[in-house]
Specification:
By secondary structure, this protein is mostly helical. It has helices spanning about 1-20, 25-50, 60-80. It is globular.
Amino acid sequence: MGFIAWIVVGAIAGFLASHFMRARESLLMMIVLGIVGGLVGGFVATSVLKMGTVDGINVESIVIATLGAIAVIFVVHLATGSRGLLSRR
């Protein structure tokens, strides 16, 4: 169940982060970035900041994963040189 939960939380986090960052990637890319962001956010929250738990599908896990996904999307856009990430539409 843990792997399926991470996919679901990653998909939710990727969706929320893409809307927050106004990113224009495909749905699959947002899910992948959401899962990676969930892993990054979970690691930072539990190991570095010693706060929060990332277990199952709950609000705390989604918030941590979304913050991680936002960070990952920001870094990906910096690395790829994508323009218009933070510009107004």
